[in-house]
Amino acid sequence: MLAKTFSGLENVLKEELLQIGASDVEPVVRGVKFTGTKETLYKANFCCRTALRVLKFIGEYKVHSQNDLYQSVYNIDWSEIFDINQTFAINSTVNSEAFNNSMFVSLKTKDAIVDQFRTKFKKRPSVNPDDPDIRINVHASSDTLTVSLDSSGESLHKRGYRVGQNEASMSEVLAAGILKIAGWKGQCDFYDTMCGSGTIPVEAALIARNIPPGMFRKEFAFEKWKDFDSDLFEEIYNEDYEVPFEHKIYASDISSISIKVSEKNAKSAGVLKDIEFSTADFATLKPKSEKGLLIINPPYGERMRERQVEPLYKMIGDALKSGFSGFKAWVFSSSEDGFKNIGLRPSRKIKLYNGPLECSFRHYELYDGSKKEKKQYGNRRTNQGEGFKRRSPDNNFKPRRKY
Ligand SMILES: C[S@@+](CC[C@H](N)C(=O)[O-])C[C@H]1O[C@@H](n2cnc3c(N)ncnc32)[C@H](O)[C@@H]1O
């Protein structure tokens, strides 16, 4: 199988896959290859926060001609995989001398599938490019053709809880990835003082409570496969995941509209009780905790005029130095000029991407006056089981269906 992710998050995803019991886990560019059972495949979709989609390989073939391609696809028993009355779509990527046109590869693959059904059943399944039941991925690289099934469907960053966003909203997968890089497990108070639509605090709450990201999805593509094991998926869905979270997440933004959107998203994800929202200018905000973890994603990119970058990032540096000593702070931005103006030396710099934009995720240790604050965060689950209630109906959590 292959789980895809954003560049820079491969090792985070590798750890997640190991946690769900995957074997032969091998990071590749923007993905992680692994082997496992049907349970591993379902869990990779349901539990992995940094996976964008999960492909299941069904065949790898040496191909040198159009005919080889057609024959290789024709030889797969497609009626084992889907029914004639289901729709399908093909997504091709090519990086090969023999095949340099992805449309052509898709067309040949479609012909082989349709011809096989026609020969066997005198009928053919329909193609639905927009909302297919079965998604087939074909990758041609040098003389190798890889055919796989997309088990996810819509990208897994679409968790299903988001009811609103602003134009600069971060991908949920990226937010979960940076939280994991920063070592977030729910072990202390957490701050996002430029929270926008609340992606980072909501993902932080889901991690802290161990709520799987797939809990809110309406569907996964594997549910339409012929071999779908609904009992197994029901078991995975109903596992007792949630753990107590004894700290608080503080989320603020200068824009009251953003805070309203954030609150709606948190409510929809069932984590409103864990997050305290406020409209506040970071320049004057004082934290309620003596120490904790802070992650911010300040404005950056083309939309910001150059003359706005310098004072904004200078303000961020000043606010961190004056108000957040004792904290571990991380800043995610694409603005090198911005980082320069923070005026603090990062102890780590990690290259990541937000879409096509190269970004950096930088860590600042904000020692308190004595510079002795070097203790690592302790284990969060000190009070496990005590005073802990499962999600109650009044916190507005709505599971997608009864499983
Ligand atoms: C890139 S967006 C954050 C996006 C967010 N991570 C998300 O996923 O929705 C930057 C945010 O910083 C906020 N902001 C700008 N200046 C601020 C300030 N002085 N204090 C607090 N928030 C500020 C903006 O209102 C905007 O929502």
Radius of gyration, Cα only, in angstroms? 24 Å
What general form does the structure show?
elongated
Named CATH architecture of the largest domain: 3-Layer(aba) Sandwich
CATH superfamily membership of the largest domain, which one? Vaccinia Virus protein VP39
Count of extended strands = 14
Provide the spatial order of strands within the biggest beta sheet.
2-3-1-4-7-6-5
Q: Number of domains in the coordinates? A: 2
Output the CATH topology of the largest domain.
Rossmann fold
Bound molecules: S-adenosylmethionine
Terminal-residue CA separation: 26 Å
Order of helices and strands: EHEEHEHEHEEHEHHEHEEHEHEE
Pairing-aware structural class of the strands and helices? alpha/beta
Overall pLDDT score: 90
Low-confidence stretches: 370-397
Helix percentage range:
25-40%
| Residues in β-strands, percent | 15-25%
CATH class of the largest domain: Alpha Beta
Account of the protein in words:
By secondary structure, the protein is of the alpha/beta class. It has two domains: 2-150, VC0802-like; 172-213 and 229-370, Rossmann fold (3-Layer(aba) Sandwich), CATH 3.40.50. The chain is built from ten helices and 14 strands. The strands form two sheets. It has a seven-stranded mixed β-sheet. The chain has a seven-stranded mixed β-sheet with strand order 10-9-8-11-12-14-13, with helices on both faces. Strand 5 (88-95), helix 4 and strand 6 form a beta-alpha-beta unit. Helix 5 packs across helix 6 and helix 9 (306-323) runs parallel beside helix 10 (336-342). The radius of gyration is 24 Å and the shape is elongated. Residues 370-397 have low confidence and may be disordered. The protein binds S-adenosylmethionine. Residues 166, 168-170, 193-197, 199-200, 253-255, 258, 281-283, 297-299 line the site of S-adenosylmethionine.
